[in-house]
User: Which sequence fits this backbone?
C-alpha cells in the first residue's frame, strides 16, 4: 500500500502541508514500514489547475490514499475519479499522520474542504 502525504519538507519529519494542489512536496510512503520517497510537487507553480495536476501526479504514482490539510473541489473530484481515498491531517508531522492513518484514526474526506483557488 502507498500513501501520499503533502509535506512542507522532503522527509517524514516535516509538517503536513495544509494545501494539496500547491504543497511543497509529496511524501509517498508505505505506512506499515514508513519507507518513503519524496517528490517536489510539479504543480506548485501552475498558473491554473494545480489541484488537478497534483491529483493526477499522485494517482500516476499508484497511491491508494492521500493525506493533506485540505482538498479543493477540482483536486477532490480528480482523486475520486482515480479511486484515491482522502484523509485530513492538521498540525502534525508526516510521520505522525502516517501513524494515525495506520491506526485508522484519521478522518476521511468525502467532500472538498477548501474553496477553489484557496491555495494561492
Assistant:
Amino acid at each position: 500500500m502507498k500513501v501520499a502525504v503533502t509535506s512542507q519538507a522532503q522527509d517524514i519529519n516535516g509538517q503536513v502541508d495544509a494545501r494539496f494542489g500547491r504543497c511543497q512536496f509529496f511524501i509517498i510512503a508505505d505506512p506499515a514500514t514508513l519507507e518513503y520517497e519524496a517528490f517536489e510537487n510539479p504543480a506548485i507553480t501552475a498558473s491554473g489547475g494545480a489541484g488537478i495536476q497534483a491529483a493526477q501526479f499522485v494517482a500516476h504514482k499508484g497511491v491508494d490514499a492521500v493525506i493533506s490539510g485540505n482538498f479543493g473541489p477540482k483536486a477532490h473530484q480528480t482523486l475520486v475519479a482515480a479511486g484515491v481515498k482522502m484523509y485530513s491531517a492538521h498540525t502534525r508531522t508526516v510521520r505522525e499522520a502516517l501513524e494515525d492513518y495506520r491506526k485508522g484514526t484519521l478522518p476521511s474526506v468525502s467532500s472538498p474542504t477548501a474553496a477553489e483557488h484557496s491555495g494561492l
User: Anything to note?
Assistant: The mean pLDDT is 92. The CA atoms of residues 46 and 53 lie 8 Å apart. The first helix runs from residue 50 to 60.
